[in-house]
Specification:
Distance between the termini: 17 Å
Largest sheet: 9 strands, parallel
Strand content: 5-15%
Helix content: 25-40%
Number of helices: 16
Number of strands: 13
Strand order of the largest sheet: 11-10-9-7-5-4-3-13-12
Shape: globular
Structural class: alpha/beta
């Protein structure tokens, strides 16, 4: 995924939230986001009242609901949803916060603890903020603000941050067992309406608030980073090639995905595959090699590309994808699933050229995807692929460099997500300012992708431009034109691309 860095003239997320209700009425009148959320919360409440500690199956949850509340195909009932026991989190809307009894000022060790609560004995130097830092990732609370409010309420509406050594503090919202999540199956042609979050944003209070706002606006999907093209990981992952992370942005992946499911969100985990700067710096043997020097090859002086044909590189990425799918992600999205497209191509040397001399770059990509596709489907997750919008033209030079034979790739994915940002079609079709011609470039791209993928079962779900780069016409109408044009040309759902999440 390639995004520009210049500051935006207008907040894309604000634009989206302002106009999304109108877009839904125009293009998806059958959706029922409010019922979706309400159905899951109703089912979870019924399960809680019945004292169920085991998983609540979707079938049982449906049976527990009144007929008018049974959700549709994508209106997911999360099988292991639970609210933190004893006290409710601080929500952005008062209607989501039930009345609760005030907790006592003190707690005797002889008294039984409220359900979902543990007792912490304060050590020297600890304050309420240190308890939040210690327990938040393993708790049921999603944000530090929510946990702070719960801690204060559970301990007599405590004021300030200071705690006394030896003091006993109630910590509510602590599950007896770790949260386990699994993918929620949907058809590959499910109409996802998604936004993109970096790993850092997804793991922050601001990101959690943005997800809730997206749900309220009618969104039903979130793409979040697991590994970006600099090689940085958003989660802790044990593997010989994985970087060690002191504190991952997403500290508890099953918990985060569980939260997305509770919000009615299709959880899409993005992994940048072969462009991995961190990996080539820490393990130079994984890099593309220079024919002339034998040293790691550089793309325009940048050492960023692993060799896509190396088994260890492929196996690392498939293992990471499988780990994320087993943590509950509904869909794994591969980005940079290609060879380097720039730099001195004649000097770039790859392992496959000696191991499989009859192969070309598209053969490597197809072989890798066939293995990843099989692995992820065995877990129950979908596989989607990000590709350059220009690949719809399938020009021989692009195909030779990237190895992205779209027709072949479509056989090994459920969803193809072309990045058809109008501003990125430099010098195409005679337009001096392609960013100001969204209808042409989105319409032409979608039609070409539809022709290239004809005969496959893959769904076309485009990335659309949600940033004001190289366009003078960026506005709510600009976004609406993209959505409508993509849909009228075979697109099923859409993803809004904005690298800065603003």
């Amino acid at each position: 995924m390639v995004f520009p860095n210049p500051g935006l003239r207008l907040s894309a997320s604000l634009l989206v939230l302002l106009i999304f209700g109108g877009i839904l009425l125009a293009i998806a009148p059958s959706t029922r986001p409010a019922q979706e959320s309400g159905a899951k919360f109703a089912a979870a409440s019924l399960a809680s009242e019945q004292g169920e500690q085991s998983r609540l199956s979707p079938a049982h949850a449906r049976a527990a609901l009144p007929a008018s509340k049974v959700p549709g195909p994508r209106e997911k009932l999360v099988s292991n949803y639970r609210e933190p026991s004893g006290w409710s989190p601080a929500r952005s809307h008062e209607s989501e916060t039930p009345e609760t009894a005030k907790a006592p000022d003190t707690h005797s060790s002889a008294e039984p603890l409220p359900p979902g609560t543990i007792l912490h004995v304060v050590k020297r130097g600890e304050g309420l903020s240190s308890l939040i830092h210690l327990y938040l990732s393993s708790s049921d609370w999603m944000t530090a603000t929510e946990m702070d409010a719960a801690l204060r309420h559970a301990n007599g509406e405590r004021k300030g941050n200071g705690l006394k050594p030896g003091e006993s503090i109630l910590v509510p919202g602590m599950p007896a067992t770790p949260i386990l999540e699994r993918p929620v199956g949907v058809p590959r042609d499910f109409e996802a309406r998604g936004i993109y979050l970096t790993g850092g944003m997804a793991g922050s209070d601001r990101g959690i608030a943005l997800i809730r706002r997206w749900r309220e606006a009618g969104g039903n999907a979130v793409v979040f980073d697991i590994k970006d093209s600099d090689g940085s990981l958003s989660v802790s992952f044990e593997h010989p090639l994985a970087a060690k992370i002191r504190r991952a942005p997403i500290q508890n992946l099953p918990k985060f995905i569980h939260f997305l499911h509770v919000q009615g969100m299709h959880a899409i985990a993005r992994i940048a595959i072969f462009r991995d700067e961190g990996l080539v710096l820490s393990h130079p043997e994984t890099a593309v090699r220079s024919r002339r020097s034998g040293a790691p090859w550089r793309e325009n002086r940048k050492l960023v590309w692993t060799d896509p044909s190396r088994d260890d590189v492929q196996n690392y990425n498939i293992a990471l994808a499988a780990f994320v799918a087993r943590s509950g992600a509904d869909e794994i999205q591969f980005d940079y699933v290609r060879f380097p497209a720039e730099g001195d191509q004649a000097d770039a040397s790859f392992v496959f050229q000696s191991q499989h001399p009859q192969w070309q770059r598209p053969d490597v990509i197809a072989d890798f995807l066939s293995r990843a596709y099989s692995e992820l489907h065995s877990i129950g997750a979908l596989l989607s692929l990000d590709v350059f919008g220009v690949m719809a033209w399938q020009r021989s030079i692009d195909l030779a460099h990237t190895g992205q034979d779209i027709a072949r790739m479509a056989r090994f994915c459920d969803v193809l997500s072309p990045m058809i940002y109008p501003s990125h079609f430099f010098g195409m079709d005679g337009y001096d300012h392609p960013g100001d011609a969204p209808e042409h470039f989105i319409g032409e791209s979608m039609e070409r992708f539809r022709q290239v993928t004809a005969g496959s079962t893959t769904t076309l779900r485009p990335w659309l431009q949600a940033f004001a780069w190289r366009t003078k016409t960026y506005s709510p109408d600009y976004i609406l034109k993209q959505v409508v044009t993509a849909k009228s040309n075979g697109g099923i759902g859409f993803l809004f691309g904005n690298a800065r999440n603003d």
